[in-house]
Design brief:
The protein is mainly α. The protein has 17 helices and 6 strands. It folds into 2 domains: 279 residues, no CATH class; 183 residues, no CATH class. 63% of the residues lie in helices and 3% in strands. It has a two-stranded antiparallel ribbon. A two-stranded antiparallel sheet has the order 3-4. A two-stranded antiparallel ribbon has the order 5-6. It starts with a helix and ends with a helix.
């Protein structure tokens, strides 16, 4: 590993770590209704919105009411976006000469659900499909709303763990409003200005036809790129304005914009660990979760970097791989302006979150490099993860080793001073089983049917299996990135990926919020000598070990038949 790449990785983690406490404290003040420096500007706007919508901000909701509001909001957003996509040809800024992908009913529905669940799975090329109205009034707006809804659910989950003898988790509409006004809008405004300063376009100009030096004609797409680019990362969405996503020079022109965009993905989910510690009044609990995330993130960085730097094992001895003009390693599918280092950082940051904002072609990674990203997706949004959803994903996962440790010492498991009884265990098991059941069944269905195999237009065998498995894992993780060899714009994949996306969004949020509701009703039990300390190094090691072993037990056969077998075949 070169000094430059090592410094890049360390700088990224150092910036994230330094921002965790101030950002976490700011979000805690926002959602605990404490004073912030934006209050003089935003409080009047908040009160006006409540008056117009008829929301009583003093009324709190039970877990069931909060969950119903979360689901209903997602449904309304999906229907509104579906309508915009279906009627975009009648709306302004529609350029029929350039929009070559037909927005069929099944593709429109898939896209609407994709953006309303923060998955932003794109079975289309953005610049050849979406008008400016669809991009800004549909996709960009939905990136704000879906990201804010996820953050609201995460905050409600934290409240449930913090409260005692309470039946409520807060008010969804209040949390949604505060997520938008105090978190996402200011962050997006600042981020968009930084991106525009670096050359990211923000206009409504018609597409430009240019002539290259060789005389070839080329269409240069224009549009409000900066506005969509920042919120897709800050709201952990990921859908690109262009088909090439973060590899396109309009979306991501420089290494600095790449660093800004990756920080936008990670900063808020990382800071939520500090918000969690503050709201439950046990800061060490939040830091324990954060350092587990950092360790797993760092392991992913090292594994992906080494895999890509070693490149194709059949070419390992070829001297042409390394020279004064070539640094060596696997540069296939990567942008020269980023190289292996920035591509590795982006691959790990995006696959660990719910933001598939890639800057390289996943399908061109080495077999083991692709497996690193796949394992991150299969872990289930626990390494930073999505905005709000990543935090409750890690806590729900941490409850499993707490339960196992309790069984080993013969005590009723406790977490944060509250008992994990039969009702809580049911929610934990529903959460833990949702991923393997959804991903593996859909993968088996795709591999076992002609309609599923028809999507493998360029690869079969182990790599083809990896493409399918990766696609469903990405949809379930509400991530959205994919291997390019899978042609997903078919009836089969448009509807089967909808199942994965909805299971990953609502199939996880429902048991998580129910778990929080059950915890909110309990009183905190004082610590005793038999209490398992969940803010210690030993628990961090236990949690890390469970994450790796649990993922292996669920998915190891599929990984062996996919990327592992592909790697072994290189030796023959």
């Amino acid at each position: 590993m070169s000094l430059y790449n090592a410094a890049q990785y360390l700088l990224f983690l150092a910036i994230v770590t330094l921002c965790v406490k101030p950002l976490g404290g700011y979000m805690a003040r926002v959602f605990c209704r404490q004073r912030t420096w934006l209050d003089p500007i935003l409080l009047p706007v908040e009160r006006l919105l409540y008056r117009l919508s008829g929301v009583d901000s003093s009324v709190e909701m039970t877990a069931r009411q909060y969950t119903a509001s979360f689901i209903l909001f997602g449904l309304v957003c999906t229907l509104a976006l579906y309508a915009i996509l279906r009627f975009q040809r009648f709306l302004p800024w529609f350029f029929p000469a350039y929009f070559t992908t037909l927005l069929t009913p099944d593709l429109s529905l898939n896209t609407a659900i994709s953006f309303s669940t923060t998955t932003t799975w794109q079975a289309y090329a953005g610049e050849n499909t979406m008008s400016y109205v669809s991009q800004m009034g549909g996709l960009c707006v939905q990136n704000f709303l879906a990201g804010a809804a996820g953050l609201a659910a995460g905050i409600a989950f934290i409240r449930g763990l913090a409260k005692e003898s309470s039946q409520t988790l807060g008010n969804f509409w209040v949390d949604l409003t505060r997520s938008l006004l105090w978190i996402l809008l200011p962050g997006s405004l600042l981020g968009a200005l930084l991106l525009v300063a670096q050359g990211v376009p923000m206009n409504f100009h018609p597409y430009v036809q240019a002539t290259s030096l060789e005389g070839a004609k080329q269409v240069l797409a224009q549009g409000p790129v900066a506005a969509l680019e920042i919120i897709k990362n800050l709201g952990t969405n990921g859908g690109g304005f262009f088909n090439a996503n973060g590899a396109h020079p309009y979306e991501n022109p420089t290494p600095l914009t790449n660093l800004i965009e990756m920080l936008a993905i990670v900063l808020l989910p990382a800071a939520l660990t500090n918000t969690f510690g503050r709201m439950i009044r046990l800061p060490r609990q939040g830091w324990t979760l954060y350092w587990v995330m950092v360790i797993l993130f760092s392991c992913g960085l090292a594994a992906l970097h080494l895999s890509e730097q070693r490149a194709n094992p059949t070419l390992h001895s070829v001297e042409a791989q390394r020279s004064q003009l070539q640094s060596g390693g696997n540069m296939e599918g990567k942008e020269v302006r980023f190289g292996i280092g920035a591509s590795t950082l982006t691959g790990i940051a995006t696959s660990n979150g719910a933001t598939g904002s890639i800057n390289a072609a996943d399908d061109s990674l080495t077999s083991l490099g692709g497996m690193v990203l796949l394992v991150n997706l299969l872990l289930g949004e626990v390494i930073f993860g999505g905005l709000g959803t990543g935090l409750f994903g890690m806590v729900m996962t941490a409850a499993v080793p707490v339960f196992l440790a309790g069984l080993m010492i013969g005590r009723t498991p406790e977490y944060l001073g509250k008992k994990i009884g039969p009702a809580e265990n049911k929610m934990i098991m529903l959460y833990a089983l949702a991923g393997p059941v959804t991903i593996l069944i859909l993968t088996a269905l795709a591999v076992g049917t002609g309609a599923g195999r028809a999507g493998l237009t360029t690869n079969g065998g182990p790599h083809g299996l990896t493409e399918i498995l990766f696609g469903y894992a990405s949809c379930f993780a509400n991530n959205g990135q994919s291997f390019g060899g899978l042609s997903a714009n078919t009836l089969f994949y448009n509807f089967s990926t909808i199942i994965a996306m909805m299971a990953g969004r609502f199939g996880l949020a429902i048991p998580a919020l129910a778990f929080a509701g059950l915890f909110a009703r309990q009183k905190i039990v004082p610590r005793s000598t038999g209490t398992l300390p969940t803010d210690s190094i030993s628990f961090g090691v236990l949690l890390t070990g469970y994450l790796m072993i649990g993922t292996a037990l669920s998915y190891l056969p599929a990984l062996v038949l996919g990327p592992v077998l592909e790697r072994l075949l290189f030796r023959n």
